[in-house]
Design a protein that fits this description.
Elements lengths: L2 H15 L4 H5 L9 H20 L15 H14 L4 H17 L1
Helix pairs in contact: 1-4, 1-5, 3-4, 3-5
């Protein structure tokens, strides 16, 4: 798994959701009983955890911002952090799988 493949998965997810307004974020996701915003925030936390592990740093809770419209930016930021941490191919593959699974569940 290359950084380019992870970037592609993130780009597809962001394109899918970046135009959403609050009611779409609050709607229940296709898979499960969580809101779409909850699913994307869970993705943000998972990628942040992978980045912290890759950096050898402690995991930290990513704040849930008041405005769900910020979630696409949060995804971009934590993925950039993961790439900057120099994560190996296995970690990048896991992150891409999480992104793809989240996108499918929305």
């Amino acid at each position: 798994m290359s950084a380019a493949e992870l970037d592609k998965a993130v780009t597809l997810l962001v394109r899918q959701v970046v135009h959403w307004q609050q009611p779409r974020w609050a709607a229940v996701a296709t898979a499960g009983n969580a809101s779409r915003a909850d699913l994307v925030h869970r993705l943000v936390q998972e990628v942040a955890n992978l980045a912290a592990d890759a950096e050898g740093e402690p995991r930290r809770t990513v704040p849930r911002l008041d405005n769900d419209l910020a979630l696409p930016d949060q995804v971009r930021v934590v993925v950039a952090d993961l790439l900057a941490a120099g994560a190996d191919d296995e970690v990048l593959a896991r992150a891409a799988a999480e992104v793809t699974a989240t996108r499918s569940a929305l």
